Amino acid sequence: MKSTNLKTTFLSTAAILVLAVLMTSTSLGASIGETVNLNLTSQAHGQHTVPNETQRNPVSSFDAAELIYLKAVSVHPIILDDYVTYEDKMAFFEAEAEKAGYLGFRFADLQGNAVALDQQGREFDVADRQYFQNALAGEPNVSDVLVSKETGESIVVYATPVYLNDSLAGVLFASRAAN
């Protein structure tokens, strides 16, 4: 029974990944077109401004695809399963981060105490971060560009709530370099 559930979860995750890749490739073309259109419009009106990277559109199809992927990962039983070893959890999340192009995954409890889901396992507080507060309110979301509390680098964070038996158990989030 457990093997069947894991296979179903794996197949669901794989299907969502395929959908995310398709949406990402579609959004890349739209994003390039939007940038070209913006630059041409700006030049036509005598303006030579370039969009600021810190002004993100959180409803872009790329961001939507990333949130779909993150939601799929957030329902994986490995996150809250006390019977899975720390080493197995870290190996799983490090492999997922590499596949998805993230700097890494992190999990925060309801108070905002976060831990990096990698071999370093750094702990830090994200209670003051808007992406954490939004996810606690049940809203998967994308942050603006911000400075990482771990590394000091500019990052963008994707966050989603994690539920256990229909109750909020914490927040799963992943980051990408902002450049």
UniProtKB/TrEMBL annotation:
Keywords: Signal. The keyword Signal applies. Residues 1-30 form the signal peptide. Coiled coil: none annotated. InterPro entries: Sensor-like_sf. This is Methyl-accepting chemotaxis protein. The lineage of its organism: Bacteria, Bacillati, Bacillota, Clostridia, Peptostreptococcales.
